Amino acid sequence: MRTLFLLTALSMGGQLLAQEHVSFPTQDGGVVYADVYGKGDRGVVLAHGGRFNKESWAQQARTLERAGFFVLAFDFRGRGQSHGGTGLPPGDDGVRFDVLAAVRYLRGRGAKSVSVVGASFGGSAAAEASAESKPGEINRIVLLGAWAGEPEKLKGRTLFIVARDDANDDGPRLPKIRASYEKAPEPKELIVLDGTAHAQFLFQTDQGDRLMREILRFLSEP
Protein backbone atom coordinates (compact mmCIF):
# COMPACT_ATOMS: atom_id res chain seq x y z
CA MET A 1 0.00 0.00 0.00
CA ARG A 2 1.20 3.52 -0.71
CA THR A 3 0.20 6.89 0.72
CA LEU A 4 0.15 9.62 -1.92
CA PHE A 5 -0.72 12.75 0.02
CA LEU A 6 -1.01 12.68 3.79
CA LEU A 7 -3.45 14.83 5.73
CA THR A 8 -4.63 17.25 3.11
CA ALA A 9 -6.68 19.83 5.01
CA LEU A 10 -10.24 20.47 3.90
CA SER A 11 -12.63 23.01 5.31
CA MET A 12 -16.37 22.44 5.50
CA GLY A 13 -18.77 24.43 7.65
CA GLY A 14 -15.86 25.92 9.57
CA GLN A 15 -14.61 22.50 10.64
CA LEU A 16 -11.17 21.34 9.60
CA LEU A 17 -11.25 17.85 8.15
CA ALA A 18 -8.35 15.63 7.17
CA GLN A 19 -8.32 13.69 3.95
CA GLU A 20 -5.70 11.13 3.02
CA HIS A 21 -5.12 9.87 -0.53
CA VAL A 22 -3.92 6.28 -0.75
CA SER A 23 -3.50 3.41 -3.17
CA PHE A 24 -3.34 -0.35 -2.63
CA PRO A 25 -3.20 -3.54 -4.73
CA THR A 26 -6.02 -5.91 -5.64
CA GLN A 27 -5.66 -9.67 -5.60
CA ASP A 28 -5.75 -9.83 -9.42
CA GLY A 29 -2.81 -7.45 -9.78
CA GLY A 30 -4.69 -4.17 -10.14
CA VAL A 31 -4.31 -0.95 -8.15
CA VAL A 32 -7.10 0.99 -6.45
CA TYR A 33 -6.90 4.68 -5.53
CA ALA A 34 -8.95 5.98 -2.64
CA ASP A 35 -9.68 8.84 -0.24
CA VAL A 36 -9.58 8.16 3.48
CA TYR A 37 -11.48 10.17 6.11
CA GLY A 38 -11.19 9.92 9.86
CA LYS A 39 -9.69 7.16 11.96
CA GLY A 40 -10.72 4.50 14.42
CA ASP A 41 -11.66 0.85 14.55
CA ARG A 42 -15.07 1.05 12.79
CA GLY A 43 -14.38 1.04 9.06
CA VAL A 44 -16.76 1.94 6.25
CA VAL A 45 -16.05 1.44 2.54
CA LEU A 46 -18.01 3.59 0.08
CA ALA A 47 -18.47 2.02 -3.38
CA HIS A 48 -19.76 4.49 -5.98
CA GLY A 49 -22.38 4.02 -8.68
CA GLY A 50 -21.73 3.79 -12.39
CA ARG A 51 -22.08 7.53 -13.04
CA PHE A 52 -20.01 8.56 -10.05
CA ASN A 53 -16.50 8.44 -8.61
CA LYS A 54 -14.88 8.45 -5.19
CA GLU A 55 -15.22 12.22 -4.83
CA SER A 56 -19.01 11.92 -5.09
CA TRP A 57 -19.05 10.49 -1.54
CA ALA A 58 -17.28 13.46 0.08
CA GLN A 59 -20.29 14.85 1.96
CA GLN A 60 -21.43 11.44 3.19
CA ALA A 61 -17.86 10.46 4.09
CA ARG A 62 -17.46 13.56 6.25
CA THR A 63 -20.78 12.87 7.97
CA LEU A 64 -19.61 9.33 8.75
CA GLU A 65 -16.26 10.67 9.92
CA ARG A 66 -17.97 13.02 12.36
CA ALA A 67 -19.93 10.03 13.67
CA GLY A 68 -16.63 8.31 14.50
CA PHE A 69 -16.13 6.05 11.48
CA PHE A 70 -12.90 5.37 9.59
CA VAL A 71 -14.06 5.90 6.01
CA LEU A 72 -12.61 4.94 2.64
CA ALA A 73 -14.14 6.02 -0.69
CA PHE A 74 -12.46 4.46 -3.70
CA ASP A 75 -12.50 4.60 -7.49
CA PHE A 76 -13.39 1.34 -9.21
CA ARG A 77 -11.01 0.05 -11.88
CA GLY A 78 -11.37 2.11 -15.03
CA ARG A 79 -12.22 5.26 -13.03
CA GLY A 80 -9.65 7.86 -12.09
CA GLN A 81 -6.26 6.21 -11.69
CA SER A 82 -7.59 2.83 -10.58
CA HIS A 83 -7.04 -0.13 -12.86
CA GLY A 84 -7.50 -3.87 -12.84
CA GLY A 85 -5.00 -6.62 -13.34
CA THR A 86 -4.62 -8.95 -16.29
CA GLY A 87 -5.68 -12.50 -16.94
CA LEU A 88 -9.30 -12.40 -15.80
CA PRO A 89 -11.55 -14.78 -17.73
CA PRO A 90 -13.96 -13.30 -20.31
CA GLY A 91 -17.03 -11.79 -18.72
CA ASP A 92 -15.36 -11.26 -15.32
CA ASP A 93 -15.03 -7.52 -14.67
CA GLY A 94 -13.18 -8.12 -11.39
CA VAL A 95 -14.89 -5.26 -9.56
CA ARG A 96 -15.47 -7.42 -6.47
CA PHE A 97 -11.67 -7.47 -6.06
CA ASP A 98 -11.69 -3.67 -5.73
CA VAL A 99 -14.21 -3.84 -2.89
CA LEU A 100 -12.34 -6.64 -1.14
CA ALA A 101 -9.05 -4.75 -1.48
CA ALA A 102 -10.64 -1.68 0.13
CA VAL A 103 -12.04 -3.77 2.99
CA ARG A 104 -8.67 -5.42 3.59
CA TYR A 105 -6.87 -2.08 3.44
CA LEU A 106 -8.98 -0.77 6.33
CA ARG A 107 -8.46 -4.02 8.23
CA GLY A 108 -4.73 -3.53 7.74
CA ARG A 109 -5.03 -0.01 9.15
CA GLY A 110 -6.60 -1.29 12.37
CA ALA A 111 -10.34 -1.45 11.66
CA LYS A 112 -11.90 -4.18 13.80
CA SER A 113 -15.16 -4.09 11.85
CA VAL A 114 -15.73 -3.04 8.23
CA SER A 115 -19.03 -2.26 6.55
CA VAL A 116 -19.61 -1.52 2.86
CA VAL A 117 -22.07 0.99 1.44
CA GLY A 118 -22.55 0.30 -2.26
CA ALA A 119 -24.70 2.31 -4.66
CA SER A 120 -26.21 0.82 -7.83
CA PHE A 121 -23.27 -0.69 -9.76
CA GLY A 122 -21.18 -0.34 -6.61
CA GLY A 123 -23.84 -2.15 -4.63
CA SER A 124 -23.80 -5.10 -6.99
CA ALA A 125 -20.01 -5.23 -6.71
CA ALA A 126 -20.28 -5.03 -2.92
CA ALA A 127 -22.74 -7.94 -2.93
CA GLU A 128 -20.32 -10.01 -5.02
CA ALA A 129 -17.53 -9.14 -2.61
CA SER A 130 -19.67 -10.11 0.38
CA ALA A 131 -20.47 -13.47 -1.20
CA GLU A 132 -16.78 -14.13 -1.86
CA SER A 133 -15.45 -12.72 1.42
CA LYS A 134 -14.20 -14.73 4.35
CA PRO A 135 -16.64 -15.08 7.28
CA GLY A 136 -16.50 -11.93 9.40
CA GLU A 137 -14.49 -9.97 6.86
CA ILE A 138 -17.42 -7.73 5.88
CA ASN A 139 -19.66 -7.13 8.87
CA ARG A 140 -22.48 -5.11 7.31
CA ILE A 141 -23.48 -4.13 3.80
CA VAL A 142 -25.81 -1.40 2.54
CA LEU A 143 -27.19 -1.97 -0.97
CA LEU A 144 -28.48 1.38 -2.21
CA GLY A 145 -30.64 0.98 -5.29
CA ALA A 146 -29.00 -2.39 -5.92
CA TRP A 147 -29.67 -6.09 -5.60
CA ALA A 148 -27.45 -9.13 -5.19
CA GLY A 149 -26.91 -11.63 -7.96
CA GLU A 150 -26.70 -14.43 -5.38
CA PRO A 151 -28.43 -12.99 -2.32
CA GLU A 152 -28.37 -16.27 -0.42
CA LYS A 153 -24.55 -15.95 -0.28
CA LEU A 154 -24.49 -12.54 1.41
CA LYS A 155 -22.65 -12.49 4.73
CA GLY A 156 -23.27 -10.29 7.76
CA ARG A 157 -26.13 -7.84 8.21
CA THR A 158 -27.67 -6.39 5.06
CA LEU A 159 -29.71 -3.23 4.49
CA PHE A 160 -31.48 -2.74 1.16
CA ILE A 161 -32.61 0.85 0.40
CA VAL A 162 -34.49 1.95 -2.72
CA ALA A 163 -36.86 4.70 -3.84
CA ARG A 164 -40.35 3.34 -4.45
CA ASP A 165 -40.59 4.57 -8.07
CA ASP A 166 -36.93 4.16 -9.04
CA ALA A 167 -36.94 2.62 -12.53
CA ASN A 168 -34.81 2.08 -15.61
CA ASP A 169 -35.59 0.96 -19.16
CA ASP A 170 -36.40 -2.52 -17.85
CA GLY A 171 -38.99 -1.20 -15.42
CA PRO A 172 -39.18 -0.58 -11.65
CA ARG A 173 -36.20 -1.69 -9.59
CA LEU A 174 -38.18 -2.36 -6.40
CA PRO A 175 -39.50 -5.84 -7.41
CA LYS A 176 -35.97 -7.13 -8.13
CA ILE A 177 -34.62 -5.60 -4.95
CA ARG A 178 -37.49 -7.02 -2.89
CA ALA A 179 -36.90 -10.47 -4.40
CA SER A 180 -33.21 -10.20 -3.54
CA TYR A 181 -34.08 -9.11 0.00
CA GLU A 182 -36.42 -12.07 0.48
CA LYS A 183 -33.68 -14.54 -0.48
CA ALA A 184 -30.96 -12.91 1.61
CA PRO A 185 -30.13 -14.49 4.97
CA GLU A 186 -31.01 -12.82 8.26
CA PRO A 187 -30.33 -10.31 9.73
CA LYS A 188 -31.60 -7.99 7.00
CA GLU A 189 -33.74 -4.90 6.42
CA LEU A 190 -35.55 -3.34 3.48
CA ILE A 191 -36.35 0.39 3.48
CA VAL A 192 -38.43 1.93 0.70
CA LEU A 193 -38.19 5.72 0.41
CA ASP A 194 -40.50 8.05 -1.47
CA GLY A 195 -39.56 9.31 -4.91
CA THR A 196 -37.99 8.24 -8.17
CA ALA A 197 -34.29 9.01 -7.61
CA HIS A 198 -31.80 6.24 -8.14
CA ALA A 199 -29.12 5.29 -5.62
CA GLN A 200 -26.72 8.18 -4.88
CA PHE A 201 -29.06 10.65 -6.59
CA LEU A 202 -31.32 10.17 -3.53
CA PHE A 203 -28.89 12.27 -1.50
CA GLN A 204 -29.82 15.24 -3.71
CA THR A 205 -33.56 14.98 -2.92
CA ASP A 206 -35.78 15.70 0.06
CA GLN A 207 -35.14 12.08 1.11
CA GLY A 208 -31.40 12.70 1.45
CA ASP A 209 -31.40 13.49 5.17
CA ARG A 210 -33.50 10.44 6.00
CA LEU A 211 -31.30 8.24 3.81
CA MET A 212 -28.19 9.35 5.68
CA ARG A 213 -29.90 8.85 9.04
CA GLU A 214 -30.92 5.31 8.12
CA ILE A 215 -27.40 4.45 6.99
CA LEU A 216 -25.89 5.88 10.18
CA ARG A 217 -28.41 4.01 12.33
CA PHE A 218 -27.74 0.72 10.57
CA LEU A 219 -23.96 1.09 10.78
CA SER A 220 -24.07 2.18 14.43
CA GLU A 221 -26.39 -0.46 15.87
CA PRO A 222 -24.69 -2.94 18.24
SSE inventory with pairings:
Elements (H helix, E strand, L loop, with lengths): L1 E11 L2 E11 L5 E7 L4 E6 L10 H9 L3 E5 L20 H14 L4 E7 L1 H12 L7 E5 L12 E7 L3 E2 L2 E2 L1 H10 L4 E6 L14 H13 L2
Parallel strand pairs: 4-5, 4-6, 6-7, 7-8, 8-11
Antiparallel strand pairs: 1-2, 2-3, 3-5, 9-10
Helix pairs in contact: 2-3
Could you write a compact summary of the structure shown?
With 222 residues, this protein is of the alpha/beta class.
Please describe what this structure looks like.
Helix 3 (121-132) links the parallel strand 6 and strand 7. This protein has helices at 58-66, 95-108, 121-132, 174-183, 208-220; strands at 2-12, 15-25, 31-37, 42-47, 70-74, 113-119, 140-144, 157-163, 167-168, 171-172, 188-193. It has 222 residues and is α/β, with parallel strands linked by helices.
Supply the key terms.
222 residues; Rossmann fold; 5 helices
- SSE order, one letter for each helix or strand: EEEEHEHEHEEEEHEH
Computed Rg: 16 Å
CATH first level: Alpha Beta
Approximately how much helix is present in the residues? 25-40%
Tally of alpha and pi helices: 5
Biggest β-sheet strands, sense, barrel:
9 strands, mixed
Report the strand count. Answer: 11
Molecular shape = globular
For this structure, the CATH topology is: Rossmann fold
CATH superfamily: Alpha/Beta hydrolase fold, catalytic domain
Structural class: alpha/beta
